[in-house]
Amino acid sequence: MNKKISNKEKRIYMDYAAATPVSSDVLKVMQSYFTILFGNAGAIYKEGFVVSTAIDGARKSVAALLSARSEEIIFTSGGTESNNLAIFGVIDALEESGMGIKDMHIITSAIEHPSVLEPFKSLEKKGVQVSYIGTEEDGIVNIKDIKKALKKNTVLVSIMYVNNEIGTIQPIAEIAKTLRHFRKQNPKFKIQNPKLPYLHTDASQAPLYFQLDAEKLHIDLMTLGGQKIYGPKGVGCLYKRKDVRINSVIKGGRQENRLRAGTENTPLIIGFAKALELAEKNREKEYKKIKILRDYFITKINKKIPKVRLNGSRELRSPNNINIYIPNIDGEFFVVLLDSKGIACATKSACKESDGDDGSYVIEALGHSRERAKSSLRFSLGKETIKKDIDYVIEILSEDIKKYSNFSKLG
Fold first, then answer.
1. What is the helix, strand, coil percentage profile of the chain, to 5?
2. Can you give the residue range of the structural domain that contains 288?
3. Catalytic annotation present for 345
4. Which residue in the list 351, 392, 404, 410 is annotated as catalytic?
5. How does residue 410 score in pLDDT terms, banded at 50, 70 and 90?
6. Cβ 226 vs Cβ 15: under 8 Å
7. Which of 277, 306, 333 is the last residue in one of the domains?
8. Is residue 337 part of a domain?
9. pTM over 0.70
């Protein structure tokens, strides 16, 4: 539903997990690359050299923030492309090296973003063996389940850092430790490729509140995107550890070390690097501020609407995420209802909202009913959130629950 928003209309935005506004500092550094410094980075004259130098600077900045090398950063169009490049890139490179596609085994969790799950399903149709790990009711992957799923022919494990729907934080460093131990014990790849299986993490939701140190996390591949960190949409990167071999997914020119063809989008790359820099600079301060607001929201809504239940762990959770189950409501209906009253929230990943009223597959994966999956709402907080907004949202929600519980039949 497209609706014009007048200047007089007060909107309360609580879907920062879906998209964030571009910060003024980020927009400022981008502007000249739209109009004055517009050259093609591949050109061998001055305009191209200036732009190429700027992109190199952005790459070095991103690399430094991730404790990585410049050559380990591949700029992409965002999280979805980065995930696809990591997954298909690894499998294609292994197949090219002589490994049969039906001989490969890969592992992921049942609560991953669609841009991870859909590539896995596609590979499964081609013959790749896939294990989908469930989670506990708290939404955390159990290390024991990963250990059980590992096989001699496991080549890739992909587990997200922070879940986009319920905000749960996965034990990436522990998973990496498990894989390092497994590599030493696995005779199949000891000579052929002692680095297998690779560990990939989609960290798109992490930079604002969690440190991303590739060395400390011991990851092989990591996905990031601009739109979740007050940067521009349509840009992101894939961190690829130097000795990890992947093939390109987009074919064409030799950009990005021949791993991502296409003219570099200079303004977006510059903006992404700046947004990531600011995210790290303000990380600790923002974590404390947003967590106070998040806890205030949860405490207040529990008092006002006692039947509400939190989906996922409260302790191992991103500070900006509140995903709640409200019995006897239709989540999609309530999103539209709240929107009509100036409140923006969600039921699930924005990438899945257009799928209709199927409910959240993430919440079902926690072992909950389909009714709970369809009766849950996600509120994600950000820089502009204040207590007054939270008070208003909870008051409106309380009133609407009384009016509209059981309004729609839940299938």
1. 45, 15, 45
2. 12-21+283-404
3. no
4. 351
5. very low
6. no
7. 277
8. yes
9. yes
